[in-house]
Amino acid sequence: MPLISLDRSKTSLRAAALARRAALSETARAAAAQALLGRPFPLAITAGDVVAGYFPLRGEFDPRPLLQALAEQGARLALPAIVGPDRPLAFRAWHPGEPLVKGQLGIPEPAAAAPALTPRTLLVPLAAFDRAGHRIGYGGGYYDRSLEALRRDGVVTAIGLGFAVQEIPLVPALAHDARLDLVLTEAETIDFRS
């Protein structure tokens, strides 16, 4: 498939999945975030493990209840920060309730003075996903670059968080598109690590 056709395909798939996500009520969104707390987290978390999440925007699946629960199990938390175009994300220490600052794209993130951390587990927002572990993000490539760098430097488990309505039959993925290891929705845990 030509690159331009692939880009158009991803754009239309992204728009359709985001429309389904946008149609969810606030009650359904809150219930989905709580649903993750009702089943075991798919990885063992030991004291000091670094788990990076994200600050939810535009109706994204809210990882904050899960992050709070993981912190109570001893995880150290981090949130991403954009440090420049075409660069991997930086991950900075964060504790629930700590104030955040607006980053380069207006996304809340820890202040630049917060310690940099390397996550062992990375919670990834998404626009759409498929049963092969591919995701469609928002087109900036930040998570693809970040996962490539983290995987080159060690072991990291990438867990996409999304609503079941964001699943699509097939993501048109390219070689540089980083695969997820798992996806958590309000309905199930989908494991691609086999």
From TrEMBL:
<feature type="binding site">
    <location>
        <begin position="10"/>
        <end position="14"/>
    </location>
    <ligand>
        <name>ATP</name>
    </ligand>
</feature>
<keyword id="KW-0479">Metal-binding</keyword>
<keyword id="KW-0547">Nucleotide-binding</keyword>
<dbReference type="InterPro" id="IPR037171">
    <property type="entry name" value="NagB/RpiA_transferase-like"/>
</dbReference>
<comment type="similarity">
    <text>Belongs to the 5-formyltetrahydrofolate cyclo-ligase family.</text>
</comment>
<dbReference type="GO" id="GO:0046872">
    <property type="term" value="F:metal ion binding"/>
</dbReference>
<keyword id="KW-0436">Ligase</keyword>
<dbReference type="InterPro" id="IPR002698">
    <property type="entry name" value="FTHF_cligase"/>
</dbReference>
<feature type="binding site">
    <location>
        <begin position="135"/>
        <end position="143"/>
    </location>
    <ligand>
        <name>ATP</name>
    </ligand>
</feature>
<feature type="binding site">
    <location>
        <position position="60"/>
    </location>
    <ligand>
        <name>substrate</name>
    </ligand>
</feature>
<dbReference type="GO" id="GO:0035999">
    <property type="term" value="P:tetrahydrofolate interconversion"/>
</dbReference>
<dbReference type="Pfam" id="PF01812">
    <property type="entry name" value="5-FTHF_cyc-lig"/>
</dbReference>
<keyword id="KW-0460">Magnesium</keyword>
<dbReference type="InterPro" id="IPR024185">
    <property type="entry name" value="FTHF_cligase-like_sf"/>
</dbReference>
<dbReference type="GO" id="GO:0009396">
    <property type="term" value="P:folic acid-containing compound biosynthetic process"/>
</dbReference>
<dbReference type="GO" id="GO:0005524">
    <property type="term" value="F:ATP binding"/>
</dbReference>
<keyword id="KW-0067">ATP-binding</keyword>
<dbReference type="GO" id="GO:0030272">
    <property type="term" value="F:5-formyltetrahydrofolate cyclo-ligase activity"/>
</dbReference>
<protein>
    <recommendedName>
        <fullName>5-formyltetrahydrofolate cyclo-ligase</fullName>
        <ecNumber>6.3.3.2</ecNumber>
    </recommendedName>
</protein>
